[in-house]
Every structure is written in C-alpha cells, then in structure tokens.
Amino acid sequence: MNEPLLEVKRLSKHFSGRGGAQIHALTDVSFKMQPGEMLGLVGESGSGKSTLGRSILRLLGPSDGQIIFNGIDITHLSARDMRPVRRQMQMIFQDPFSSLDPRMTAGQIVSEALAIHKLVARANRSARVADLLRMVGLAAEDATRYPHQFSGGQRQRIGIARALAVEPAFLVADEPVSALDVSVQAQILNLLQDLQEELTLTVLFISHDLAVVKQLCQRVMVLYLGRIMETAPAGRLYAGPKHPYTEALLSAAPVPVPGAKRSRTPIGGDAPSTLHPPSGCVFRTRCPYAIAECSQVVPELREVEPGHFKACIRDVL
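and the corresponding structure tokens:
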C-alpha cells in the first residue's frame, strides 16, 4: 500500500466555554487517507464533523494530537510555513453564497489564489480562469459576473473552481450540497465525482446524507460526539454495520423504494452536551445494548473484519 497522503493521530480539539468549562469537540481521532481516496465523514449535527475538517486544514488549531500531511507534521507549523502547504489543501464550503465575496466577480474570486501563490503570470490569468470555469460547467463569459447574478448551484461551481485553482492534492468538502435545491444537488455531486476521478484528488467528504456518501465514497467514517465510532469500506458498512450508532443512522435514513421500510433501531433522546460527555463510551446513554461496563471503559477502535473497525466493547451486531 502507498504511504498515506494524510495521517491524523489522536487529534483532539477543545474550546473554552463559560466559566472555563471545556467543550470537547474532538477526542482522540485517528485515521489515514490514501492518495486519490474519497472518505465519507458522517454523523449527527454537532458530532464534530466540520471541526475535524477545519482542524485538519489548520483553520482551527488542534488542542492535542498530530496532523501529518504528505509526510510533513503540520500540527504546529507557523502561518508562514503553512502557506505552501495550504496550496495543497483546500476547502469547499457548505454555503456557496456566504463563502464568496459579493464585491468580487467570479473571475476575481477564482484568480485570487493564482495571484497569492504566484502560480500564473498576470497576462495568462484570464485564460486560466476561463479554463477553470469551463472545468466546473460554467462559461468563460461568466468571469465578469458577480455572485448575486448566479444561482446557488452555479455559486457552488465557482467555489469548486476557486478550490481547484491552486491544483490541490487534498480537498475537504463540508456539506457541499446541503444548502442547494434538491434539483441541483445531483449535478454538483456528479461534478465532484468526475473531478475527483479526473484529477485524482483525495477528498474528505462531510455529509449527514448517508445516501450521498454511499454514492460517492469508497470508505466511510462515523463520528459521534467527537469520537470515531466505526469506519469501513462503504459497501461493507452499509450492508452490515457493526456499531449500534451506525445501525441507528442507517435505519433512520429514507428508503429510496416507495412503500419500503427499514426495521428501526431504537436510539433514545438527544446527544449529550459536549461540555459534559458521558464517561466510558460516549454513546452509552443512547445505546440499546449498553451494559454497566460501558460507563467505565472508553472503547478503542478495533478491527472486527479486514478493514472494518468499530469502537465498542460488545459484539452485539
């Protein structure tokens, strides 16, 4: 197997709350990504998905752990030393409107990174911008238009073109279609899939939509209250989840066949506060299979099948 492009080791991110309380957004998150892989990151709202993506890109400073990108430990690099690394790591944001400067044209938005990183001579930037716009399904003439003159799907295409302008190796796509109309979501997803294959991009795809992740990603990682519960190849995880939380997520997802129903897995109440996470297994307060030992033991990710890992002390699934 090739060396991983990204390796995250026991990454934690804590925020300070009122009175000095600690908000445990991420705790001991570890995983690797191979070059050209698309990894789906799923979980309920508040599970820490966006925090993980932003921490990997160093948009947030990690509290503990390591982030190794392309063989370089970037965990504590200065802003100056991070600059050449940032060219290789880009983000596609959830809201395509708020992430674009309304005072800049599409061409200026896409060409900004070219100027910052001095990738293309000024005389050649217009041609490069036109190529990038066409790559994402827009016209070269769209370079002179402003964000408010585009639809939501078109604005997201601009955001994708901006991310690709510096020819990155790694992308974090943070809920890239959740703010779009259902009618255009499929178009953007197909575009991302085509670009990922064509450019051999490594993509961390964050989503709450399990059907989308199944369509796009080779592997899936399930996050709950800042901890990884399960990770496995997509087909294997969807066919046979091993963690009670994954089973609950899948059973609650809509069935694409009219009239068909899934057997529901009970999952009680709301997720606990990240200010006061449960002792032991953080999922135990909502788990139908919890036993007394679950309150005492923090389960480590263990391999239950080749390439299939779960953080649970019980073999109930």
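(Above: one complete record from the training split.) Residues 6-88+168-232 form a domain with the Rossmann fold fold (CATH 3.40.50.300).
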